[in-house]
Amino acid sequence: MDELIRITEQDSNHHDLEHKTIEELVQGIHQEDLYAIHALGGVLNQVVPLIKAVVQKLKVGGRLFYIGAGTSGRLGVLDASECPPTYGVSPDLVIGIIAGGDYALRHSIEHSEDDTAQCWKDLSQYSISKQDIVIGVAASGTTPYVVGGLSDCQKNEITTGCITCNPNAPISQVSDFPIEVIVGPEFITGSSRMKAGTIQKLVLNMISTSTMIQLGHIKGNKMVDMKLANNKLKKRALGILVNELNISQEKAQRLLNEHGSIRNVLQSFNSI
Question: Model's pTM, two decimal places?
Fold first, then answer.
């Protein structure tokens, strides 16, 4: 293994922050964000194979798991929790697991990430198998909970991937499909909730969005399977039907009441 370079822990390129104006602080943070975006653009060739693996697994009945601790864990849970309302899929299709459990979503439980055996125990609660795929999310790439979890997955012949911001990190060594986005030192030294967290969220967006499109949950660019859980989404659904079928709002509402979903209405018109 090549020597690990802990770029995410290196000293910030910005100094004397307490003496800067708000304008200077905002500009500095923005510059770092732009650097991170550029870094992601350079590794899209790493993102694509992982998404292809996810799609292949889900098409034959497998599930996608995200595992992480702290900010990284919260981002995985966030992405997973948004799939059911956005795409109408089961909450059991994409599952986010955070070290320390749901309590850790709102509270810092720093020691929970240090147990290398706990992640496999958490995954086992879902009867994980070779049908599934597990993606570890860790900015440092060294989080014991995540590295241990992916290692145990590989021992059990479960496909693995990762999202990290350090090159040649331990997490990459236990990932079949590693994604390493080298975003550089944070604006505040070591605060990887910032641009590292931003990049992790962007990669998660790519994974879940591309996967759901490939699984058929989007028509054109519209969320035809979204759950109509509030007035905003119901209004959006009406707009989709009006535009797709060239009908009035009143007729769209009647059809939606009758069929219960955008997809069902469009199928009744053979438009999907």
Answer: 0.92
